[in-house]
Amino acid sequence: MHSLGRTIQRLARHRRQWEQLWKAPPGGLPHALEPPVSPLTEVTGFGSNPGALRMFTFVPPNLPPSPALVVVLHGCTQTAAGYDYGAGWSTLAERYGFALLVPEQQIANNPKRCFNWFRPHDAQRGRGEAASIRQMIETMILDQGIDRRRVFVTGLSAGGAMTSVMLATYPEVFAAGAIIAGLPYGAASNVAEAYESMFQGAARPAAEWGDLVRQASPHKGPWPRVSVWHGDADATVKPANAGAIVKQWTDLHGLDADATLTETVDGYPRQAWRNRAGEDVIESYTITSMAHGTPLATGNGAEHAGAAGAFLLDVGISSSYHIAKFFGLTHTKPVHVPERRVPIVPADTRADGETVDAEAADAAADQNARRSLHQHIETVITKALKAAGLMK
């Protein structure tokens, strides 16, 4: 009965927020940014792919020997090409000479294209989506001669939470990671806990957060460096989650709770935690007055990249550039990359020119997504009732 009551309380508490979050445009989520032409190339046959994800890559023509690799994980409603275009990662990859891997979620796995960071089957070492991403990384390492000491991962929202999953379950693979509007590893193990963590945040001591990562793999250290980004006006993933991520990784690195350095970068506060060698091991940016999304500074400058769109917010600081800098990828002399000015395909036209009823398509997608969500909620309730002996 206790489990049943707790489950129903969670469902009721977040019902309104669930309904608002899962509405399709124009009532809720805006259309994802999607370029008609993308520099990304799809790769197939990269392994057993237990998570049924798609693999996209970008290898710039100026790729040096033993290059670095950045893995980029998109957010809900986004695609690999759309997030790359908006966040500007392929521009930075061409500018500074590193390879790019952009996994993509499929609607069959999640109706809003969210990575399933809260499902144990997809968030454990050697299983599901986490294992698929690991297989993609190994394929890139072998095909492109990637330097195994310079593999990095970053992501937004559900992609940020999946970044936490990858850093926790495969810490030996990554030199560093960057989590944007995401959640700490172990914040949830089912959909009800996921929304509770997103809308409220989970309070745990730093040691407990650290233990969740220590238990996720046989790795005993050293641990990846971590960059954390979050808007303090984010109502979709509460900013308290950024603090929990910092707690998780300061505990793993054996660092004090108080930051070593506090400064202002491009008008926003940045905190850094340094190790005994004086290196920035963890950093945290708080983007004041920013809602849910990836911070951008668009334009042609050296510290600019990307294009504003849904959950891609031009606030005057390029998280992608500063993350690449934190990864140590901006030390080489940049190559001039012409700004990619490509027209966006109208919402009511397919790539082949065939006109479609955009409103009807949106309505159908919304209906399917809500039906899937409602079925999932009903499944959760049914399981709780059966566990309590109230249903056969």
Short summary of the structure?
With 392 residues, the protein is of the alpha/beta class. The protein has two domains: 1-30 and 361-392; 32-341, 3-Layer(aba) Sandwich (Rossmann fold), CATH 3.40.50.1820. It has eleven helices and twelve strands.
CATH superfamily of the largest domain: Alpha/Beta hydrolase fold, catalytic domain
CATH topology (fold) name of the largest domain: Rossmann fold
**Main sheet characteristics:** 10 strands, mixed
Strand content: 15-25%
Question: How do the SSEs run, as a string of H and E?
Answer: HHEEEHHEHEHEHHEHEEEEEHH
Instruction: Please compute the radius of gyration using only Cα atoms.
Output: 20 Å
- Gap between N and C termini: 15 Å
Count of folded domains: 2
* Text of the CATH class of the largest domain: Alpha Beta
> What's the overall geometry?
globular
Structural class, from secondary structure content?
alpha/beta
Total helical segments: 11
Q: What average pLDDT do the residues reach?
A: 84
Description of the structure:
- With 392 residues, the chain is of the alpha/beta class.
- It has two domains: 1-30 and 361-392; 32-341, Rossmann fold (3-Layer(aba) Sandwich), CATH 3.40.50.1820.
- 34% of the residues lie in helices and 16% in strands.
- The strands form two sheets. The chain has a ten-stranded mixed β-sheet with strand order 1-2-4-3-5-6-7-10-9-8, with helices on both faces. Strands 11-12 form a two-stranded parallel ribbon.
- The chain is globular, with a radius of gyration of 20 Å.
